Amino acid sequence: MGGVRTAGDLVARMQLNRGMRIDAAKKYVAESLGVAVSDLNDPIVMGEVRDDKNIFWISEGQTTVDGIAAKYNISKLLDLDINCVNRFLKNTGLG
Amino acid sequence: MSKILTRFGDGYKVELTEDEVKADIEEGCNDAASRAGIEPLARDEQEHIFEMFKNQDTLVGIERGREVVMTYDGMSSKIRRAHIVIDRVQSLQVFERALGADTLELSHIDYSFKPCKPINGFELPDLDLLLNSTVAPVYYGAMPNLGLYSQPDGPCPNPADLLPLGKIDEARQAYEEAIEHAVSDIVFVASAMYEAGVDGINIDTVGAAGDADFLTALKATEILKEKYPAMGIEMGMAGEFVLGMHGNLSWRGVKLAGLYPQDQVRLAQQAGATIFGPAINIVTSGTLPWNVARSVTFCKACSEVSEIPVHANLGMGVCGIPLTLTVPVDALSRATKAHVEICRLDGL
């Protein structure tokens, strides 16, 4: 679907960790982000959405929220436990 | 009547008439249906495959809105296979950021859980770096590869030595002993990786050593899911049919030898897998219309009964992709389109 260049990574998370099939996973992600399902694989729309929501985008020379920080925001947006985020919170005493 | 340029399962080109392509598609469907006891593709689905092959454009594409996500096996060795010397973490960053991969998979070059166990402590820093520098879900993947537990490579008597001597009970005991070792190794490695932050485990090429190999994956999945209920587990198969190398193994009352994808997936989801990957063998002497139609028939039956996402293993030599290191894009795109659109797959 395009991974972090679109919303492919987010749909994949719902499949891997919630066992959702593709249509349910796309619908869940679209509703969580406040976009149409048809926008999920659009790199133009998703670039702006990802930038607005601080979940990493291909920004070419501009700053972006990356790594664990981006995954923390994804965890909140999707209401999904992300293993490495939980581990980070535990290790830092933030969670 | 104009000819249609397509390929054999080994990748070499062949020109066929329209009638020959239609006949191959029908025969491929019927072959899968008769082997697995499933329905052949409907006429309109066979026609859909025919139109893909009749279209002589180099690339064909998925209908807009039907895009699916992708998972991988042996991902961190793929770029190095092209003789590009690159670190594993960097190669996965290239996959994520340049190539748009939906998921990432850290893996050891010796892609089996047994060799991954003693070097586990040296895998963890790479995993840590990867998790800190990427955004997509991260798997750790390897194969059960039960063959590694047989002498001279492993601790168990070798069934391939025992069977020709007529020592069937001893061969079966050897498989059963190997299962326990392999389950222990998978659980050890997967637990360490999960406790270090990985999102999921990819148990790949399951069934390569037959029914004992499949039972290993089911038992390991069951234990891991009990231990870590939120763990994502993908189970990808080695072939379309579980070989009865032991011949008398069951899991939850279901005999494993002889199972086809529509039954394999039921057991995988019962064990706790969150994604299942059917793998349909290519027949190198068969044409791609025949191979694609055959593979789609198997995978459609699997997808229809599945409650979990199905990612068909479209790779070199499986699911209608020619058995070659450099896969022609005309072949790849046609197999992909046929599987996604007809089987209603969730991923590849």
UniProtKB/TrEMBL annotation, chain A:
This is Dimethylamine:corrinoid methyltransferase. GO terms for biological process: methanogenesis; methylation. Keywords: Methyltransferase, Transferase. GO terms for molecular function: methyltransferase activity. Pfam families: Dimeth_Pyl.
From TrEMBL, chain B:
It comes from the Bacteria. InterPro entries: Dimeth_MeTrfase_MtbB. GO terms for biological process: methanogenesis; methylation. GO terms for molecular function: methyltransferase activity. Pfam families: Dimeth_Pyl. Keywords: Methyltransferase, Transferase. This is Dimethylamine:corrinoid methyltransferase. It comes from Desulforhopalus singaporensis.
